[in-house]
Amino acid sequence: MTILFVFVSIAVLILLITWLKLNPFLAFLISSILAGFLLGIPPQSIAGSIQKGMGGLLGDLVIVIVMGAMLGKLVAESGAAQRIADTLMDIFGVKNVTWAMMVTGLVVGIPLFYNVGFVLLVPLVFTVSYRFKLPAVYVGIPLLAALSVTHGFLPPHPSPAALVAQFGANMGLTLTYGLIVAVPTIIIAGPLFAKFLKKIDAKPLDTFQAKPKAEAELPGTFNSFFSALFPVFLLVGTSIFNLNADKESSLAPIISFIGDPGMVMLISLLLATYTLGVRRNFKIPALMDIYVAATKDIAMILLIIAGAGALKQVLLDSGVSQTIADNLQGWDVHPLVLAWTITAIIRVCVGSATVAGLTTAGIIAPMVGASGVDPNLLVLAIGAGSLMFSHFNDGGFWLYKEYFNVSVKDTIKSWSLMETIVAVVGLAGVLVLDIFV
């Protein structure tokens, strides 16, 4: 009955949004309350779960999304995004734009948290789309596929890194195997799949679509790339320090503070305010107006993501992920396939890739030694399963839908299907690699 109640809650959420045309934030609140009652959470605890879920998710994301929106708006309005887009097109050519986006997403996605990479690079997608009259979804999916794969497969991202530690795997070997599986997965889910998405009607947020500027008005190439990608440089630098420095060093707490994604985005915004703004004769009041406009455009996105966090927390507090894992544990299948299946089902039901992966790890860990399966491949199998079919209960689904401004139907046809391709092709790659290692 537990699984049935989860599906009923999600079905109600879908109907409220698609049939009654209710605002997604309100639909999430109603569905979360319904799920709480159906799954047996005490009535007096349901409101607490909802508040905890909203606060927990926004606590991690609000600084990143708000600062990222401000930075993206400044990069667009200053002409830096146009300069970056022109440079990429000069290198790759308009015909190979999806490959350019894929490479950008892969390189940036390895050190960056997914949400940081999304808010940092999606404005670039919109600029390329607008400037070269290309469909936004067609341009964006290869980049998002790369960001998603690096988030699910590759250390030092939180979930793969935690799985490496839990299974006693080797971080370097997992990263190497992960790249071997990731590259073909991204190619299939990115540039190849994107060819089928050219007709999807997307109207990206106006805040990231600045009007083209004359060549003389654009910032320099170095300034444009440096200012827009400074978060990448900062995260890479702090990550390298944390991996190699003495934990007892007096600098360690400071570097950890600077390396927090929220602080990275704040520092990067302040830098860009000077390099792309003040230094190029923008007045401070004009810059602040740009930031206010960016914040207004993403207010509803923040609320919708908070709603997704509420539903996720209700499902977690009900113990549904553990129930699913316990029911599937006894299946007589290959350990890699079993791990992927458990993770995929929890992911679809709960919506969180990290929760799905770590819940499965707790179930699978005792079997690792006896099964003889390579723990590095097990990390990748779980990582692939954790990306399966992102839909209504996943904040990433709504982040994509609202930024690209596409319908629910087209979000499923593009974003959800891309995530499913990543999960399935990723598992296939792990199974092929299992033959040789």
Automatic annotation (TrEMBL):
UniProt keyword list: Cell membrane, Membrane, Transmembrane, Transmembrane helix, Transport
Cell location: Cell membrane
Pfam families hit by this protein: GntP_permease
Presence of keyword Membrane: yes
Source domain of life: Bacteria
Topological relation to the membrane, as annotated: Multi-pass membrane protein
Molecular functions (GO terms): gluconate transmembrane transporter activity
Transmembrane segments: 5-22, 28-50, 57-76, 96-122, 134-154, 174-197, 218-242, 254-277, 298-316, 336-365, 377-400, 412-436
Entry keyword RNA-binding: no
GO CC terms: plasma membrane
Family indicated by similarity: Belongs to the GntP permease family.
Protein name stated in the entry: Gluconate permease
Source organism per UniProt: Mariniradius saccharolyticus AK6
Higher taxonomy: Bacteria, Pseudomonadati, Bacteroidota, Cytophagia, Cytophagales
